Amino acid sequence: MKNKYDVLVIGGGPAGALAAKTAVEEGLSACLVEKRPAIGAPVRCAEGIGKEALHEFAEPDPRWISAVMTGASIVAPDGFSMKLESHLAGNKVGYILDRKFFDRELVWKAAEAGADIAIKSRASSPIIEKGHVKGAKIESCGSVKNVTADVVIAADGVESKFSRWCGIDTTVPVREIMSSVQYVMADIDIDPHSTVFYLGNEVAPEGYLWIFPKGERSANVGIGISGKKSGEGHRAKDYLDRFVKKTFPRGKPIEYIAGGVSVCRPLDCTVSDGLIIAGDAARVVDPLTGGGIYNGMYTGRLAAKVATECIGKGDVSKNALMVYDTTWRASKMGKAIERNYHIKEYLIKQPDSKLNEIIHSVSKINLKEFTTLSLIKEIISINPKLMLELGALAASIS
Amino acid sequence: MLKVHRDICGYCGCCVSVCPEGALELIDAYLCVEENCTSCGICAKVCPLGALEVADEK
Ligand SMILES: Cc1cc2nc3c(=O)[nH]c(=O)nc-3n(C[C@H](O)[C@H](O)[C@H](O)COP(=O)(O)OP(=O)(O)OC[C@H]3O[C@@H](n4cnc5c(N)ncnc54)[C@H](O)[C@@H]3O)c2cc1C
Ligand code: SF4
Ligand code: SF4
Questions:
Q1: Calpha distance A262→A281 (Å, rounded)
Q2: Chain B environment of A204 (Cβ under 8 Å)
Q3: Is A339 at the interface with chain B, CB within 8 A?
Q4: How far apart are alpha carbons A128 and A136 in whole angstroms?
Q5: How far is CA A206 from CA A37, A142, A177, A288, A315, in A?
Q6: What is the pLDDT of residue A376?
Q7: N or C: chain A end with fewer CB closer than 10 Å?
């Protein structure tokens, strides 16, 4: 690690890795710091990603693809299951990654492209001069070093402390944190090519429970519930244990992880003087699905591109970096976040009886495109009265 | 005072994201509670594992 770089990236997740890789590919010098001693571990993810989304960044590699998905099921609160299938029979719709290897591969690529990587190195405070972020103090295996940079990209995940230290409030509202737990379970009976989502207030209040296959008889079995619904005796772990005991009494957990996923609106502004915020740190997770791998990679790459342009022009002020903020908000990703935020807000207010009604109205859907948007469109076409309930939101869907 | 049950904590960072004071910091697998903690209990509520407890001061 040197004392000065064009770009300093904080965090070695998908957002940070893409930021560091893109920065060096664009001709800048870059260093990525990750506070944990290993990239990608422990995993904090159910590892699902859509086919198109992944292909935008990498060709699938068997080393980090655990399973290929061809369909999905949604289980209503009353236990009724609706099957989603791809329009083209046998078509791949998504993947379950092995993020220990996937994240590592992304950071490898950044390193090979020329970025410096420092692990077990934590940004412990920003260097700020006249309100301008100029770098960070890095605590690395017992030594402390000031690293300066023209632009700092904060990709420090759900914790998002760095931006907070720079004066930006990144606090996630209690009702909008998905308090999550997951087991990787072995020796269970599953459909190895279909994800399953369970909805309902008994199963996962204001969230959902998932089974994401990792192999023929193995899966990520996890749950996220609203922080508002969490408390002593009714935490995410209590709900998950109850489900697992009932559904997979003989399953064997081989990994146990916890996590938090923000399902709030993105930060009001994701740049500051000398600072760009990317990935979960910017709260750009899809509020409906809780998916943030793609959004992290997308914003990480964009952050580095904008940093390159601004450094080239000699202006890294908030004003100049603002292009980053406006670009992602106007992108397909930004629009999906906004739309899915409203859909989420609608869905969490529905009683189980309404969810049952919606899911019963369709037992099988054949989607042309395997996206939440096409699913919602299909459901609305079968339940036109939903259109009225969704009000203004309906316009953005049709 | 906020107590961290380290045998339960899965060092996931969920609590860090909701603390209005920014009083929690994860140093790899070690959750630190800083002096500005107000014992509001928000973090203890959302922890998926139940590793946090606001204990009465003696
Ligand atoms: C239980 C669960 C299930 C999920 N399931 C899915 C899913 O199926 N599909 C999907 O797309 N998304 C899923 N997500 C969301 C997804 O994991 C995140 O959106 C994604 O990892 C975001 O990438 P990131 O790079 O922004 O942050 P992260 O991957 O969290 O990386 C941030 C990194 O920054 C490091 N860091 C933090 N602070 C500092 C510091 N001060 N100094 C140095 N390093 C620091 C952290 O150690 C971490 O490694 C899930 C999340 C959880 C918790
Ligand atoms: S939310 Fe709970 S398990 Fe996660 S880091 Fe905080 S105390 Fe530990
Ligand atoms: S008790 Fe309140 S102030 Fe203290 S760490 Fe938890 S959320 Fe922050």
A1: 9
A2: none
A3: no
A4: 8
A5: 34, 42, 10, 10, 44
A6: 85
A7: C
Pick the CATH number of A4-44+100-171+266-330 from 3.90.1170.20, 1.10.10.60, 1.10.580.10, 3.50.50.60: 3.50.50.60
Cα-based angle A387, A390, A394 (whole degrees, multiple of 5): 65
Instruction: Please list every residue in chain B whose beta carbon sits closer than 8 Å to the beta carbon of residue A258.
Output: 10, 12, 14, 47-49
Q: Specify the amino acid at residue B30.
A: Y
Task: Tell me: ipTM over 0.90.
Answer: yes
Looking at this protein, which amino acid is placed at residue A289?
Answer: T
The backbone torsions φ and ψ at residue B52, rounded to the nearest 5 degrees and listed phi first, read: -115, 145
Report yes or no on whether pTM surpasses 0.90: yes
What's the angle, vertex CA A305, arms to CA A304 and CA A308, rounded to 5? 85
Judged on CB neighbours under 10 Å (0-12, 13-18, 19+), A374 is middle
| A177 interfacial to chain B (CB closer than 8 Å) | yes
Where do the H-state alpha helices sit in chain A?
A: 14-25, 51-55, 99-113, 161-165, 236-247, 293-313, 318-330, 332-348, 352-360, 372-382, 384-390, 393-397
Q: Give the fold, CATH level 3, of B2-54.
A: Alpha-Beta Plaits (3.30.70)
CB contact under 8 A, B18 and A177: yes
For residues A137 and A388, the model is more confident at A137
CATH of domain A68-94+173-262: 3.30.9.10
Which of A21, A116, A156, A197 to probe ligand 1 with, by most ligand atoms within 8 A of CB? A156
